[in-house]
Amino acid sequence: MMRMETAAHAVQSVGRQYIEMRSPTSTGLDLVQNLPSVSVAMPDTSGFKGGAIYLRGLNDSDMALLLDGAPDSLAAYLQQNVDPENIESVNITPGSSPVDAPASNAAAGTLEERTITPSQKMGGMVDFSYGTNNLSREFIRLESGQIGNSGVRAYISFSNAHARQWMGAGTNERKHVDVGIQKDFANGSYLKFFGSWHNSLFTIDAYPTESQFFAYKHTGQGYNRTNVWDPTSPTAGNYWKSNLDSWNQFFLTAPMHFVVNRSLDFDLTPYFTTGFGWDGSTGGTVGTFGACTGGCFYGNGTQASAGQQLSTYWSQGWSPDVGLTAKVNYRIDRHNQLTFGYWYENNAIDYAFPYQATMPDGRNPTSNNNAYKLYTADGVRTTFQYNAGYELNSFFIEDTAKYLDDRLTINGGFKYVMSNYWDRASGLSNYTIGANSTAPLPHLSISYRFNEHHQIYINAEGDFRQPSPSALSNATTMPKNQYSITEQIGYRYNNKWFLFDIAAFNASITNRLLSIYLPNTAYATTNAGNQTIRGFDAMIAGREFHHFSPYASVEYLHGTFDSNIPYGDTYLPTKGKESILTPRVMANFGLTYNSSGFFGNFSLHYTGPQSVTLVDDQRMPGFVTNTLAVGYHFKPFMFLKSPTFRLNFSNITGSIIRVGTTGPANNYRPVTLLDGSTLAAGSGAQFYVLPRFSMTGTISTSF
Prior knowledge:
By secondary structure, the protein is mostly beta strands. Helix content is 3%, strand content 54%. The protein has a single domain (123-702), classed as Beta Barrel (Maltoporin, Chain A), CATH 2.40.170. The strands form nine sheets. The chain has a 24-stranded antiparallel sheet that branches. A five-stranded mixed sheet has the order 1-7-8-5-6. One of its GO terms (molecular function) is siderophore uptake transmembrane transporter activity.
């Protein structure tokens, strides 16, 4: 659960051996949930939905999420781009990012997934899983091996999964294809390709307020979707077929490395990703929808009845994110290597919030189903249409110097980012806003190894973040760009018995951007003043002793808002308050066993109490989560090279606890604003609840 690192910044990672012990339904978030800087909230245990990740008081919006060197999806959709069987490693570098990474929003750090390399030999792998909530999952990967004398090898994999909701009514389905290709050259050059297609249809969860959570905890009254469709009921919109998410995702990246000579090499990584589909939820009735005060009509001219149930959507069309990074590495002498390069990205997204008539059986129709489209009396379709995006150009330069027999490493870099942002609305709302931005992002790291056992390092960098284009809907002005400066200092020690790593950090953030959850799986963005976060994290792991390998980690955090946050024409009293989602303490313990075919892993995670409202008047208690994996590797039999059976358990104790929020809330109780007026009490935050006890059994083998 920990490996020896030498980089000049904090590194926390999991590798293939650990990943193979986890459930095949794991996402990238599941795999890192026991690293010291991380707290993870997952809405289900079946791998259909992403979740939330909190890192040093920040979240995934402040992280560089990468897959094979290309920008990955946000945490809520991280499961869309790669199956866990094809992940080689997941690395987190808290508070830092490489200068050449295609990202600028790394105040919290970097999470990078690396895919497996295609095998040299023809063969493959297959696994089958069955578990709680009628989970069934099948996976197969076929390996080509070396194709003739071409030096090319490849794999293709397919997975299919189905499960019920762990709470309430509804089902979830998922299909996924991964393709990997690699070509190596004798001089060290290589060409690599990874592509994936993801298709899912799942039930959108309802997330509880505090009162709804306690009703579930103390009385067993669920808060999620129902299997009853009654259009006359006030709760008609909670029918599960009225709350569906249909999505297709494509991801392509092609890292290439070219060696020119001993002093010069070149890297090029083009990437492409796009997704299209819709998230549907209840939208009231024709009589309550403001745009239909003059009546709403179907495409054939028939008027919709005043009580007609409506479905509302977050709907996205073909919206490509295209980019590339290119860099040249030149070894000036035996001490210095100079890197300079260019990053380009074009992200254009077309999305809408259409209203349509709900189908007679309560299901929300597809967002482009003409039979259920509605129009106003003026013939305007009942939709808010948006086109948003940005075009980004960035140049970077970096020098890595090594002295004292390579024990001293100094790395200095600089990235300059220029972007053009836009957001245009049409349909029931019309506006155009935009902005041009530039940001200088310095990087510096210094590492010194006293000997093979001791190392110290310091790291500092600047990061900036713009709001996601898909989170700009209904914005009258562009939110200010967030800028942050992060510093950290660390020490590492290793010997034949154990590894130890400790790092202290400080982050100063200006114009903090916060993501606010909308009730159809989309997010909006707002500014939240300035913020300071500081603390330390430490981890220790024992090398294998009598087949056991222990691991433990702890993190201390202290975060505060440094300014009052605007609210209308006044301010919320937030200056000096504890910043949201910044628990003072997080801790982990893990124990791994491996001997004579038997293997197992037990992990325990603790996150302390934390504020969940901006004015710090609602808090989420501390909580403990746990996982257990046990299994056995059988001896090879005929063409079965590695027959394995394993069981994975989560929430072994059956705890009913909150593990995160869908986003910040202003307040929970009445609060006096800075102009003396009173802001009425609200419902507070909405929470992720830890899914109940689950078990997954898996049979797998390579061949």
